[in-house]
């Protein structure tokens, strides 16, 4: 039996909402139901340009989307400074919440959002798309294989892209009143999530920001890095930037094996994604090469990763709607751990790059 299609409303016409609107259309268990913007003309243009069905409602404000009885769930791509208000209100209106990252300005705000979702019985999930690509689950199997990978010892990740002059001047991610985390909240969120993913979501004990982050004139971070330390000796580092060439790397090193990929945030191709593995690697007799050679693995998908995200979220919402299931706690827990580390990196920068303990 086919799943009931979950009716989605979207709050705002951010650029990323174009991608998610397409994902909602591609997902087999979701439908575009409504769009709201502060300008009804802008909402009309967005709907016309992004494949909304003729039945979709067009609103000149966000409140009307939340008041629409046909809307089951809302996608919120608003600036981070607005997440608390609109995510909490959405939950209070019994709308399930798919929230763009970074999810909040700090973990205290996120806790208020998560409490509103839990008390109103609605599903929460953040918009970290790569988590839902089938490649991610395949790589997880390798990292969990104690014979081939062993125990994680170190992880290193980087996400950078070179913003053009217009981006660096006008994008909401460089405005202190809209997204005060800057590159740390945008690109850094992905790096932190990937490190936690490699560590099977075990929080580090301490975080130490790297010296000399780059700021814009308004004091927003354009590039920064950090190291993470665990009590058992694991270490990790990341670098995130709006000023360097497009790079999306993860390296996870275990006692027996290692994993590498170079496109973890957005795969090079929409329908397939690869990664490389090595296990029990050594040198040839004269140290002129490796034995065995690393192996390349390709994972194909019928749906782009953002549609996989929507499909999984809609499936959870459908279980609640049709069967009275409880909201899945896995995804809000992962979001909260990511926010905790993000907050700790920011605190380390503000404290002169001192180590900051991560307290859950």
Automatic annotation (TrEMBL):
Residues 145-259 form the GFO/IDH/MocA-like oxidoreductase domain. It holds the Pfam family GFO_IDH_MocA_C3. One of its GO terms (molecular function) is nucleotide binding. It comes from the Eukaryota. Signal peptide: none annotated. Residues 6-125 form the Gfo/Idh/MocA-like oxidoreductase N-terminal domain. PANTHER family: OS10G0403700 PROTEIN (PTHR46368:SF4), PTHR46368. Belongs to the Gfo/Idh/MocA family. This is Gfo/Idh/MocA-like oxidoreductase N-terminal domain-containing protein. It comes from Tetracentron sinense (Spur-leaf).
